[in-house]
Amino acid sequence: MGRLGTLPVLVGIHQLHYVPWLRYFEKIAHTDVFIVLDNIQFNKNGWQNRNKIKSPAGVVTLTVPVFETFAQNLDEVEIRSDLPWRRKHWQSVRQSYAKAPFFSHYAGFLEDAWSQDWRMLNDLNRHMLPFFLGGLGITTSIVYASDLDVPGAATDRLVNLIKAVGGDAYYSGAYATEVYLDARMLQDAGIRLELQHWRAPVYPQLHGEFVPDLSIMDLLMNCGPDSLEVLMGGAV
């Protein structure tokens, strides 16, 4: 990707997630600049601290246990180090993917990441995201919202973030227009809206019947260097 300069700049924006799923990375790969919302409000029922993998026994959710306080931001969320979640996550991934064709390509980093004593959720997720991007071969420019002095809330903040990185187009999940995104506000700001119409691709997968929408680890373990091509083949 790379249309920076005099050509249109397409921007994607999403919360910082834990071992994110495929749709997340399609959004990054499709855009010129991707802004990671690392200082938005924490959603205890969301995917900022959990995601899914496929084990021999079926789908397993990996959850990072955190200390929860009312209306805290992501950059304030602390991990519960008193619980053995790191060992459990590594064991679950190893048991699920040890026989995958490309397990050895990624096992070293993951084992090391889960051996470290993380205190803040953001630190863990910011450590892992570049590794997955590198494994996929995605070169999109990544900017963290916490590094931008941008005011506002909801769509107003999105507009300010997009302008802060020189963007003039926004790549959004289609669901956003039904939930929180004010398309008219984008239009009034001179920002073109492009919706993400994407279907999870089917690829070779361990443990029986195919399951979509898993962590990016599932795709990488099974498809290795072909993962980006598989991922972008899901566009419709």
Care to describe what's here?
The chain is an alpha/beta fold and 236 residues long. It has one domain. Helices cover 36% and strands 17% of the residues. It has helices at residues 22-30, 85-97, 103-113, 121-136, 154-164, 176-179, 183-188, 216-223, 227-232; strands at 10-15, 33-37, 50-55, 58-63, 66-67, 78-79, 141-144, 169-173, 192-196. The strands form 3 sheets. Strands 7-2-1-8-9 form a 5-stranded parallel sheet, with helices on both faces. A two-stranded antiparallel sheet has the order 3-4. Strands 5-6 form a two-stranded antiparallel sheet. α1 links the parallel β1 (10-15) and β2. α3 (103-113) runs antiparallel to α4 (121-136). The mean pLDDT is 94.
Biggest pleated sheet:
5 strands, parallel
The total of beta strands comes to 9
Question: Strands of the largest sheet, in order across it?
Answer: 7-2-1-8-9
Arithmetic mean of pLDDT: 94
Radius of gyration: 18 Å
What oligomeric arrangement do these chains adopt? single chain
Query: Number of helical runs?
Result: 9
Label the structural class: alpha/beta
Query: What fraction of residues sit in β-strands?
Result: 15-25%
Q: Name the helicity range.
A: 25-40%
Give the count of structural domains.
1
Low confidence ranges = none
**SSE order, as H and E?**
EHEEEEEHHHEHEHHEHH
Termini gap:
19 Å
CA-based shape: globular
Compact overview of the structure:
This protein is an alpha/beta fold. The protein has helices spanning 22-30, 85-97, 103-113, 121-136, 154-164, 176-179, 183-188, 216-223, 227-232, and strands at 10-15, 33-37, 50-55, 58-63, 66-67, 78-79, 141-144, 169-173, 192-196.
